[in-house]
Amino acid sequence: SCGCCGDWVSHMQASGFQVQVHDTGNAEARKRLGVPEKMGSCHTALVAGYALEGHVPAREIRRLLKERPQAIGLAVPGMPVGSPGMDGALYNGRKDPYEVVLLLAGDKSRVYQSYPAQISPKS
Question: What residue ranges do the domains of the chain occupy?
Answer without folding.
Answer: 3-115
